[in-house]
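#structure-requests
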Amino acid sequence: MDNSADDDVVSVNTYGYFAEIYDGFGSEEFCLSLTTHLLESLEKYRLPPGAEIVDLACGTGVITTELAKSGYQLVGLDLSEDMLRHAKQRAQRENLTIRFARADMRTFQLKNKTPCIISTHDSLDHLFEDDELDLAFQQVATALRPQGLFLFDMNCWEGIRHLDGRTVFVENEDRSGAYHLIAEDRTLETNIVGFLRVEENLYERFDETLFQRCYSNDEIEERLEAFGLELLERIPIQYLKGDIFKQLWITRKPGLDIPELF
């Protein structure tokens, strides 16, 4: 596995300080619910127990550890060192052996082809430009074995548009924050202000802005076809005001899977 990120590629959201309050914004709760959909789909499409799963843009490792607890062999990749630190700590608390590495979803490489790749919590929506998403899909198609599965979720504009103008707050004794959402022109801008306690009665402030793009179903399907990935199923997994907010895409790389000889 190539553990390095390509410094020549344009930067995307890397979740620095935001990693410290990420789970508190409801991310952990969503990831736990999404794990149920993933496990049902992996069983439906016959990924064998104990098979390897590469979690692309694994974040703080909630889904990574949950799938590992279900018996799969996990590899977690993320561009953010801060997110990986939390993911490693989570795996250690669960006494799980998971390989983690810093890698960019647009340029990652695996030493051996894998039977399954996942990318969740709208990670691919952070790839704002067409060519960035193309690179990610190309790398996934290259890394998969024939008959390998690629499962990913992405936002839907119909639901995301309802977030425009919304502000969300989170607070506990060590950290607090708020983010304000602007949804327009099929993009989502998240402006974050957070505070981390560094010692008694002393907090450090940070500000971050994240950008996401809501790709249409047609735009995603065109890329799947272009990179030889077969769409098996598309499952709505969240709704907002009656509109689809987020959906899970289940795809497969066609071809004859010839087991490797050892």
